[in-house]
Amino acid sequence: MKVNASVSDGSPEPLGVTPTATGVNVAVVSGHAEAIHFCLFDATGQIELRRIRLPARSGDVFHGHVDGVKPGDRYGLRADGEWRPKAGQRFNVAKLLVDPYALALDRPFRLADVLFDARRLGVASDEHDSAGVVPKAIVTSTAAPQPRLDPPVDWDRQVIYELHVRGFSKLNPAIPEALRGTFAGLGHPASVAHLKRLGVTTVELLPVAAWLDERHLPPLGLTNYWGYNPIAWMAPDPRLAPGGFAEVAAAVAALHEAGIAVILDVVFNHSGESDHLGPTVSMRGLDNAGYYRLDPYDPAHYVNDAGTGNILACDRPAVVRMVMDALRTWVERAGVDGFRFDLATTLARRDDGFDPAAPLLAAIDQDPLLRNLILIAEPWDIGRGGYQLGNFPAAWGEWNDRYRDTIRRFFRGDEGMIGDLATRLAGSSDIFALRYRRVNRSINFVTAHDGFTLADLVAHERKQNHANGENNRDGTADNRSWNNGAEGETDDAAIRARRRSNVRALLMALVFSRGTPMLTMGDELGRGQQGNNNAYAQDNALTWLDWAEADRDLIDFASQIIALRAAHPALRDSRPLTGQPIVPDGEPDVGWYGPDGEALDGAGWHAPDARTLVAVFAVLTRSGEVDRACLLLHGGTTPIDLRLPPNAGGTSWQLAAASAAPDPSRAAQSGPISSLKVPPRSVFLFLG
Q: Please, what are the domains in the chain?
């Protein structure tokens, strides 16, 4: 590295560190700093070779051009300014800062005492240099844009699979050990083959941008596994992608080759710098008052609408720009097809609350690169007015927790669930159709990374989070689960059989509901977490997929019911149901029936002891034919005798799948059916 390079004013655009023909242009946003320093390090990232004060400022952008710096060189930033927490300022030139626009890091983040400014505890000064433990950004050359899935994803056919890059392949013996737990492992033919066999159309990856552990974890011998604690939003975490963006892009390309789209779970609601006692590693040191939303009555503290210690001020120009640039970076450099936004209500907050026309949402919706991608909101946070399900832009999908809760309560055996169950099976039109939205924007799920796995949902009534080191206080206690007669693991063959049947029933209900189904990694393998419903700090065999113990029959079952959904428009049509004829004087698009085969009346809808619902869906296909499906759900704990409603097509119903039978293809060989005995907690699908 040439360390005696000349420095000139450079340009305020583009932001970040950008290679030029003779060096790099450096541009850093800070509205309150007195000076920004560009710090060059040797190839080990340990020795600071030169500290260059950026010579120019345009508005809130400090900038300069440094000759002789080339791609592959390592750097960090430092910021001069006041230490006045009560005014929102927390500058300390001794703390090396990671560039928010860094595209690659030379190592993962790790916590160390020197990252924390001692003045937060009342000490008069802190001159301890943190450079020895802070990851160094790597100067990265311009990359050619990566192609996205072609043709674009069809929302009507979406089946999403939420997975963790590390946990998905870490224990897969079919993948070379050196690749397991990385993007290279995700892109390996063995990984792609499983996803292709399952029939999912899209994988949703838990956060992959470089993150930092919460400060309470290292003393417990734990680390953050999920990654919802980001610092560098434009840099793949080196633990997941040792090969950087090239490795990520190769994995995405392999999935695209199989027809599978890739979306990223992104966290822009907060950063890993935590609360007022947290470390100084990036934006806190660059411009604390500019990037974060501070308590207006006490600017030494942060607004905490995400429950993580801080939130980003996503209505301010610098933060909007950073988020937009980060999204474009992942699309252009990795070729991803969209994003799921964690705690998305925070992204649309202004000082006075949620705004559906907030600057960041408006910016995404007008951006020609981003607006047609798959965009999904987690539509809540813990702030005032934080629950905003149904209020995001019309083209966006939204995680639908009402679907989750209703399905769980119905199969648990709660009273009075029939009406709400019908609404959720029909795509939650009460939420999505009011603004003329397709019901496939309802992202239906029964489980997600946060909570019980599907196997644990039917085996535990109480969380077992002791391994997290918080005396089982963390994680929700409202699981709406049931254990089938024994808590946790059991050798009782009858209980184990009931649990497997319950899992199949829940999968069928999810896959055959209108809306877009989302499966959680490992639910199709029978994966459990020993009752841990908040395994964010368990980077070990508890959360990794155990391929050796996978339930092969369940994998076959899941793949076959997903194939049934794909083959029958009646199971996935995105238009809100009306109960009106699909053609003049024809059958309605939906009919609702009780166990006696009769259409439900007012009393039937409101009977507290009702545990059975039959739905008949009908769709006029593009070829002019009618596709019909009859879905039967029984949430009772005792068997019943049931008579099917008549088939408007004039033929008998044919059984296509049953949760009581692990092999849908064998169930379909049973012939015409008009009545049957229905086992407890079961789902049947008939076609005709």
A: 7-138 (2.60.40.10), 578-687 (2.60.40.1180)
